[in-house]
C-alpha cells in the first residue's frame, strides 16, 4: 500500500492544475534546472517586499463586517471539514504542536537549511531536558499517524495543523503562523494514476463549491459582480501548456 497527501488552505481557489513530472532527465537538464531554481531554494514566497506591495490590490474592501466575517469563517471551516470527511472517507485527528528534535518527523521546508524550526528545551526538572521543536509541517507525521491509527486502504485522516515558520518570506500568501488543513489516506499502488487523482480533486472541489454556494445564501452581501461564484467544474491542463 502507499499514501497520498494534501494540504488544504482555508482560502478557496478558483482553478487548479494537474501535472506530471518527467521521469528521467539528462545531467545537462539537471544542471540547467539547478541554475533556474537557485533563487527558489528557500521555498515559496521568494521575492522582495517591494514586489509584494506592487502586486497587492489597493481597492479591496471586505463585504462583511468583522463579526460576520468571523461567523462566516467558522461556518466555512465546519462545512469543509465535514465535506472532506464524507467525500474522501477521512476522520479527524489532533496534530502535535511540538515534536522531539530527534523524532525525525519535522520538516525543514527547504533544501539549503535556511528555514530552521523554533526549538527550545522542555520539561522542568528533567535532566537532561527534552530538546523539542515547534512543528513546521505535518507531512512526515501524517504518514506515521496512518499506521498509528490503523487506517486501511481507502481510509484516511485529516487534521487542523498549526505551525510556526519563522523564516518564511512574508507576503499575501505566506505567514510565520500557519493554520491549514492537512489530510492523508491509504491507497493501493494501482490507484496512483492521473484518473484517480482527478477524481480526488473533483471531490475536493465539490466540497469547496458547495461551501461557496452555502455562504452566499447565508450572507447575501457576498453576492456581488466583483467576486462572482467560483466555477462549478474544474478544467485540468498540463503544466507544459502554461509555458507554451
Notes on the protein architecture:
The chain has helices at 27-36, 49-55, 66-88, 139-148, 194-218, 239-243, and strands at 2-8, 90-92, 98-100, 119-122, 130-134, 156-164, 177-187. It is α+β, with helices and mostly antiparallel strands. A four-stranded mixed sheet has the order 1-7-6-2, with helices on both faces. The protein has a three-stranded antiparallel sheet with strand order 3-5-4, with no helix packed on it. Helix 3 runs antiparallel to helix 5. The radius of gyration is 20 Å and the shape is globular. The chain starts with a strand and ends with a helix. 14% of the residues are buried.
Compact description:
The chain is an alpha+beta fold and 244 residues long. 33% of the residues lie in helices and 17% in strands.
Amino acid at each position: 500500500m502507499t499514501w497520498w497527501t494534501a494540504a488544504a488552505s482555508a482560502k478557496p481557489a478558483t482553478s487548479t492544475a494537474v501535472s506530471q513530472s518527467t521521469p528521467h532527465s539528462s545531467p545537462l537538464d539537471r544542471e540547467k534546472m539547478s541554475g533556474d531554481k537557485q533563487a527558489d531554494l528557500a521555498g515559496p514566497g521568494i521575492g522582495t517586499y517591494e514586489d509584494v506591495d506592487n502586486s497587492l490590490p489597493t481597492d479591496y474592501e471586505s463585504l462583511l463586517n468583522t463579526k460576520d466575517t468571523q461567523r462566516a469563517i467558522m461556518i466555512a471551516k465546519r462545512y469543509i471539514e465535514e465535506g472532506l470527511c464524507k467525500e474522501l472517507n477521512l476522520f479527524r485527528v489532533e496534530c502535535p504542536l511540538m515534536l522531539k528534535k530527534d523524532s525525525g518527523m519535522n520538516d525543514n521546508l527547504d533544501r539549503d537549511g535556511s528555514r530552521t524550526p523554533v526549538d527550545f528545551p522542555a520539561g522542568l526538572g528533567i535532566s537532561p531536558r527534552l530538546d523539542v521543536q515547534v512543528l513546521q509541517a505535518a507531512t512526515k507525521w501524517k504518514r506515521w499517524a496512518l499506521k498509528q491509527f490503523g487506517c486501511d486502504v481507502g481510509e484516511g485522516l485529516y487534521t487542523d495543523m498549526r505551525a510556526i515558520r519563522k523564516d518564511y518570506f512574508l507576503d499575501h500568501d505566506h505567514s510565520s503562523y500557519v493554520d491549514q488543513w492537512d489530510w492523508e489516506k491509504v491507497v493501493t499502488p494501482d490507484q496512483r494514476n492521473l484518473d484517480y487523482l482527478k477524481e480526488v480533486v473533483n471531490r475536493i472541489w465539490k466540497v469547496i463549491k458547495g461551501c461557496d454556494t452555502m455562504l452566499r445564501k447565508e450572507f447575501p452581501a457576498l453576492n456581488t459582480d466583483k467576486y462572482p461564484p467560483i466555477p462549478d467544474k474544474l478544467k485540468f491542463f498540463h503544466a507544459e501548456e502554461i509555458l507554451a
